[in-house]
Amino acid sequence: MSTRQVNPNRIRPIDLIPALSGLIGKIALVSSFAVVWAQVLNITTPDFVFKNVQIELIIGSAVSLIAALLLPNMSPAGTLAPLVVLIPAMAGYGVHPFVLSILVGIVGIISIKTRLFHVLISLSGIISKTSITMTFGISGIMLSLKNLQSFFGDNMAPLFIMIGISLISFLILMRKNITWLIIPISAAVSIVLPLIFGFSIDYAVTTTLPNFNPSYWWYEVWGVGFGFDIRTILVTLPFAFFAILLWAIDTVSVQAMIDANYKEDEAKEEIDLDRSFILAALRNMIGGTFGGAQTAALWRSFLIPLFMVKRPVRYSSILLGILGIIAGFSAVPIKVLSFPPLIWSVLLFGIFLPFINVGIRNIINAKSNVNRISIVIFTTLGVVFTPILTWVGAVVFEKTQKRFLKNKD
Question: How many Å apart are CA 335 and CA 34, to the nearest integer?
Fold first, then answer.
């Protein structure tokens, strides 16, 4: 991805769409990381998840705001969502969350400076991109529906109505080529309908000002200390390398969305990957120092709607940073945006369904039935097992296919 400035003008109301989506996505994903870490480490600290979301939101938003003001083509540093499923395995091996944060930052910077990261990305062709896009889309939809069903329990009527209204809206907007409007529509529907059916939003906040003392976080909140010893570092290092591989896979899915939303002759704002991932690496170390549970990557829940509205990254990033800081320090917006129907509806219709839409279009436009079948197979591997299998399998297949066709010619 090269750096190219497009349509440099003032902030517009439409820039709020990616900012709102990114804010909701951040709260959902950091909550997921914090919940899983708390489960595997038996953390019983009151409000652990809320405090973690608050500290991560403030740090991530502040870093993104500063970066947007200084450099126009940098992606905000978000959350590496695929890594959350590996937290139980990492904890079982003795991985320490703080050590992981620092090592991911160090290994990430080294991989970018040595160009290893770009080598990993360049291996991916259309089959790899489509398979990964479909894998993330299907896995995300399954996760969203599972969490929505868990929230509504036996009262399924509002869930079906909510999904029905949002789905019909998405299809209408897709025909009119304004699918980015699904984010505010699904957000409104997912708040109003549950309230009508008797559900309520918990506004209660026990504390508003976050604590930025690393010792407080790692000794009192997490209760695991800083964890820096040779054994822990050696155990954690392979998972840090694995996170960088997930960075590359995550980037492939973002590239697929860019290709799908912009025509070949259409001017586009492309992300400076080197600076963006160095920012993610630094943000990861900062967040880890102050007790954050997440692992950083590109802010995907921000970027996908951004490419849909086709606006410069800088303006939405500025709004995202401002909104995130306000939400983090005031705390109450975190409670509102943590409302499960809101979180999972916006992610379902604003992020995961567009992934599926792009994947299906690529499958239809594939050059051969062999390519279509291979995409389905690799997608299935990713959904059932891990996206790593999807990416590795698709890359090997593409290289083998390319070599075979070359020898045949």
Answer: 15
| Residue 391 counted as domain residue | no
Residue with tokens 């209408």: 172
Annotate 45-68 with DSSP letters as a single string: -TTHHHHHHHHHHHHHHHHHHHHH
Position of tokens 């630094």?
282
User: What value does the CA radius of gyration of the chain take, rounded to a whole number of Å?
Assistant: 21
Given a contact cutoff of 8 angstroms between Cβ atoms, the answer to whether 71 and 62 are in contact is: no
pLDDT tens-digit profile of 202-254?
877 766 688 999 999 999 999 999 998 999 999 999 999 989 988 988 888 88
- Which residue segment(s) compose the domain that 105 sits in? 13-358
- Per the document, the length of the chain is 409
Question: Is the pTM of the predicted complex or chain greater than 0.90?
Answer: no
Residue 316 lies inside a defined structural domain of this protein:
yes
Report the phi/psi class of residue 9: left, alpha or beta, with left for phi > 0 and alpha for psi in -120 to 50: beta
Q: Cα–Cα distance between 311 and 10 in angstroms, integer? A: 11
* Domain membership flag for residue 94: yes
Distance CA 108, CA 305 (A): 26
Does residue 378 belong to any structural domain of this protein?
Answer: no
